[in-house]
Each structure stands twice: as C-alpha cells, then as structure tokens.
Amino acid sequence: MCSGDEPVGTTAPRAAPGPAVDPIALEPVDEVVITTLVDNLFDALLTGRDGVARVPMSTGLVSAPQFEDGATVAGLRAEHGFSALVTVRRGTTSTTLLFDTGVSPDGMVDNADRLGVDLGDVQGVVLSHGHWDHTGGLAALAGRRGGLPMTLHPLVWTRRRLAVPGADPVELPTLSRRALEAEGFAVVERRQPSLLVDGCVLVTGEVDRTTDFERGMPPPHQAWDGATWQHDPLVLDDQALVVHVRGRGLVVLTGCGHAGAVNIARHAMRLTGVDRLSALLGGLHLSGPAFEPIIAPTVAAFTELAPDLVVPGHCSGWRAQHALAAALPDAFVPSSAGTRYTLAAA
C-alpha cells in the first residue's frame, strides 16, 4: 500500500454515505463514441469486436525516401500519455469533446492526422488533471483549434515534483494559465461537478474518497504549498468524464484515475443516481510497487459492478490488465491508440 507518515484517509475531502445530497440530472444520450488518440501502446495486430474498431495496418502513411514509393506505413505514435476524443449523440445532434491531450507537443495532433480525425469538430476540452502527460499536446492543439472552452479543476496549476529517496528531486512541468489564455483557450475552473453539452456530459469535479484501499500517490509525489514541498497523495484536481447511455448505464472515462478507479465509478453512480456501470475506459494507475497491492480489491469491486466494457490503458499496468482480463473476460478489451469504442442505446 502507498502510505506516508500520516493516515492519508483522514485527509480525504469528505465521506459519502447514502445518496448524493446534490444529485446531477445527467441527460441520457443515444450513442457515445470514444476514440483513443494517445495511449502508451499501439498494436496494429489487435482485432476488434462489436463496438470496438481497431486501426487498419495501413494507417499512418509517412514520407520515407529509402522505399521505392518514397513512403512507408508508420501506424500511430505510442507515448506515455493519454488523450481521447468523445462524441455524444442525441437524436441527430452530435457534439465532440477532447479529453486530455497526451504528453508530447505534437503527438496527439499527429495521431489525429494519421487517423483522419478533423480536430475542427472539437467543441471543448476537458482536462482530467494537471500532470504533463495529459496536457502536453495543448501546444499543437492551439495552432489547430483556438478559442475552445476548457473545463478543468483549479488545482491543475499546482507545482509538483517527484522526490525519490537517494535521487535528486525532479520538478514536473507545470501548466500555465497565462499561456493557455494567450493561445485563446477560455479556461473554466470548477471544483464541483460540471454539466456540458446540454446536460449530456458530466465532469465529476473532486471525487469522494470512500474506499479504504485507494490511498493515492506515495510520499515522493509532492506539491509546492507556497512555502515548502509537501506530500501530495490525493491529486485533488483528478476528475473523470461521464456519459449516460440510454438503457445501458454510465460510461466513465478516466485520465489516470488518481482518485481511485473504484472511488470514481461509485462517485459517478452516486452523483447521477444511475445504478449501472456500462463501461470504464482510461488510466487506472495500478502500475508499480506502490499500487500493485490494490489491484485485487479493485478487480473485486469491478467484478461486482460487472460492466459490459473495461479498457484499462495508459498507467493501468500489465498486472492490473491481466487481472481484469481474467476476472472480466467478456468485458475486457486491451487498449491501443487509435481504437474507436461505440456504445449505443439499448
């Protein structure tokens, strides 16, 4: 377990017994399509299934003069980051949001180009949290699609570092509000839940920490409080995107899941009053020795929730992926950049 000198659970925002005091009326949609633009893995040999479309082997033609035709197939870029395109449809009206932007300045845009995705269709940006591997692609996005509204938690601007014992501390890149606004983004800060797209998309805001095992980041993850560096276990800016697909239940998309994947799913269900989890996609942050001890209770919780689709990507780790695949073989789908997931109303 990842714990410091203090009982991390005592610093959680608040307990959440019973139904939500301030429930969210999340409007159901007829369809949601989630396309992974950036992930840690790209595998052109993966096969799809109903509702899961993989990228063709021929995707990503790039210049390469050593070949007879002067080009080769490059596929998509895989990098330690996450970004997804989310399109929700109600009737004949569709709206597209960008959830996170990957780690490199040009990786997300490059993959979008190789996929034939028109970023001009994007109508807003949602940031899951402030870590650089989810915000790095904002640089190239600004050159393609200026003036977009951007929903985020006010703590995304927090200075953070990794101070591993025996090594020099490494300060992480810190997002700049001044720079984003100078590039034309309309920043909307929210600690509370936000409803977007005429009430069809929920951004969770701060997530209630209610499990006894999801204790957050280990002591080397630190934040600057204005005077000194302090252990930052909770990453309070962590939030998820939620859609209610009519007749199927909630679709939950996470960036890293720093709030805890089980906490996030339960929080979404409690906020909306929807008692069915249809799908969980994104980073679950279960990789490495600090988090592997909580794989078993996490898998047990999701086995009980029994979603139709589970796609652990980015920072989930191979051990967690194998455990989820074994426990939920019909729901598990391996993540890969470029994959399109379609969930339609029942």
Characterization of the model:
The protein is α+β, with helices and mostly antiparallel strands and 346 residues long. The protein has one domain: Ribonuclease Z/Hydroxyacylglutathione hydrolase-like (Metallo-beta-lactamase, Chain A, 4-Layer Sandwich). Helix content is 16%, strand content 26%. It has 6 helices and 20 strands. The strands form 4 sheets. It has an 8-stranded mixed sheet. A hairpin with a 7-residue loop joins strand 3 and strand 4 (71-73). Helix 5 packs parallel to helix 6 (318-327). It starts with 30 loop residues before the first strand and ends with a strand. Mean pLDDT is 94; it is low at 1-15.
Order of strands across the main sheet: 2-20-1-5-6-7-8-11
| Rg (C-alpha, Å) | 19 Å
Helix fraction by DSSP (H/I, runs of at least 4): 10-25%
How many domains make up the 3D coordinates? 1
Q: Which CATH architecture is right? A: 4-Layer Sandwich
| Biggest beta-sheet profile | 8 strands, mixed
CATH topology: Metallo-beta-lactamase, Chain A
Gap between N and C termini: 40 Å
Give the integer mean of the pLDDT values.
94
Structural class: alpha+beta
According to DSSP, the number of beta strands is 20
CATH C-level category: Alpha Beta
Shape: globular
Approximately what portion of the residues adopt beta-strand conformation?
Answer: 25-35%
Please, how many helices?
A: 6
Catalogue the unreliable spans: 1-15
Region (Disordered): 1-21
GO molecular function, one term: 7,8-dihydropterin-6-yl-methyl-4-(beta-D-ribofuranosyl)aminobenzene 5'-phosphate synthase
Pfam families: Lactamase_B
EC number: 2.5.1.105
